[in-house]
Specification:
Length: 341
């Protein structure tokens, strides 16, 4: 065999190997976000030596991860060896309204990656391994470990900044009345909903620790909101016109979703609407961002992303009827439900 003639590249091997190593892209992205590279480039490009000194890292190793990230258009190196922000890298800055830094840190956190590394066990048993690793179900663990809870709440708020205004704009809310955001986190969606609908008032409903970091206390919403701690398996504020549940049902298996929906149903009047805001995933193999999240829900929470028929069945079991699915232009849709006749 002639070892000097390169053999034809095998595109399948290259593709599969790159796919198999994609966790290294994720680790490089997390590292860049953690050490704050994008913040240090906010005022202009810098050489790696300078970046390494500013971030307290090894110059050689830093160059190697930036070089990898640049292959995915996160940072760009010029011909003098200086690194620049790109539109993707901009979103890693910590100090901009559209920052996704906290979302990246949440998505690459141990609490997601360790259970994902044991996906095979989940697939064999049909159960998440989260409790086995962390000694408690996900939300109990977040309550027990305040720093993990904080990181998750900041991460969710960061994910939500990219979709809250689109969701609020996509639905024709009533002109007057009350909206309860059930499991509303730090209040990003309620904030955008109230800004867009000046006749509405809002109640942000979540676990006590989450509400302590809420973002509703701003002059433009003065007098139009309250926060109420509680457990959505037990009760929700009654008599509201709209119940929002954004990225709630996907956290739970069917039987728990039905319990949450029944609690909401008990608080609803004949004219109330419930809006489940989640991925509505196609059941075939069409790509959809919810399909990776679906596996995250499997490994971390025993939850799942669902298709329209699955939402219809859950609603029916809870005494609700699916009215329609409203796309929002983001990864999530609004699945509207009313009290069944
Ligand atoms: C995936 S996050 C979604 C947050 C927010 N709706 C959003 O889209 O950014 C799920 C939320 O449900 C809340 N949650 C979990 N269990 C709860 C319970 N039993 N009662 C009330 N809220 C709960 C969590 O604290 C968290 O804020």
């Amino acid at each position: 065999m002639d070892h000097t003639t390169p053999s034809a590249p095998d595109p399948l091997a290259a593709h599969l190997t790159d796919y198999a190593l994609s966790y290294l892209h994720s680790a490089a992205l997390r590292t860049a976000a953690r050490i704050g590279v994008a913040d240090h480039l906010a005022d202009g490009p810098r050489g790696v030596g300078e970046l390494a000194a500013l971030t307290g890292t090894s110059e050689g190793h830093l160059r190697r991860i930036l070089r990898l990230l640049a292959t995915k258009d996160v940072f760009r190196e010029d011909d003098k060896g200086a690194f620049h922000l790109t539109p993707l890298a901009e979103r890693l800055r910590s100090d901009t309204p559209s920052s996704l830094r906290e979302a990246v840190l949440m998505a690459t956190d141990d609490s997601f990656t360790r259970p994902a590394a044991r996906l095979e066990d989940s697939v064999r048993t049909g159960r998440s391994v989260f409790d086995e690793i962390y000694g408690a179900p996900f939300f109990e663990y977040l309550s027990r470990e305040p720093s993990a809870g904080e990181a998750f709440d900041r991460g969710m708020a960061s994910v939500s900044t990219g979709e809250d205004d689109e969701v609020a704009a996509a639905y024709a809310f009533p002109e007057k009345g009350t909206v309860v955001d059930v499991g509303g986190g730090r209040g990003g969606l309620l904030h955008r909903t109230l800004v867009r609908n000046p006749g509405l008032t809002g109640i942000l409903y979540d676990r006590d620790a989450v509400l302590r970091g809420h973002s509703l206390d701003v002059p433009e919403l003065a007098g139009r909101w309250e926060v109420r701690p509680g457990d959505f398996f037990t009760s929700v504020p009654a008599g509201a016109d709209v119940y929002l549940l954004k990225r709630i049902l996907h956290d739970w298996p069917d039987e728990d979703c039905v319990r949450i929906l029944r609690t909401c149903r008990a608080g609803m009047t004949a004219g109330s609407r419930l809006l489940a805001v989640d991925s509505v995933i196609p059941q075939d193999n069409t790509p959809h961002p919810g399909k990776a999240l679906d596996v995250l829900m499997m490994t971390t929470l025993n939850g799942q992303e669902r298709g329209e028929e699955e939402f219809r069945r859950l609603f029916a079991e809870a005494g609700l009827r699916l009215v329609r699915v409203v796309p929002t232009g983001t990864a999530v849709s609004i699945v509207e439900a009313a009290v069944a006749a």
